[in-house]
Please model this.
Amino acid sequence: MRTLWLDYETYYDDDYSLTKMIRTEYLNDPRFKSHGCSFAIDDGDFFWVTGADLPAFFKDVGPHVDAMCCHNGLFDHGITGLFYMPERKFLMDTMSMAQVALARKNPGQRMSLAKLAQYYFPDNPEWWKFEGILENFKGVYNLNPEQERKMAAYANQDGLVMRELFKAILREDVPWHTMLEDIDLTLGMGVYPQLEMDTELATAIN
Model:
């Protein structure tokens, strides 16, 4: 199964952010903007694609991948499904996986990428998320080249940590052969929502 690993970076400000809005409000707001996204295919290196090039990237790469993985699936996969690639892929999410693996083992564990990196990689602080960097981009709708360079490095680091986190969580005592399917189905309902009508029943009722 060929996997596309991804981590988006998007515009936000004091009023327009996921801390003050639900996901669907944020994604459907006219202020929404993808600054870009960090990608890797399978075990390849992570690379940055700027926002304006994302439609072309997904047009070229989308048909050749079977699965996608990120941290916070409803958000990142939601962006992909809504704006760039409506075709259904198998969806994986390290946040959902960690919630399953640690709910009983370590109740109270925070599920951000930063906190999970500290939990799973205590001896590798270089894999811990760079705290506070995104604050430099708050309210910046159009990045200058230097800002985008810093954002790309930040996102590529997050992507690498997320992929290593995926591997670490897979070693937890969880029946992943079925649980990953459950996560995919759950995420799919939010990323690719569909409403089906039983037309025969509807006709009979009328």
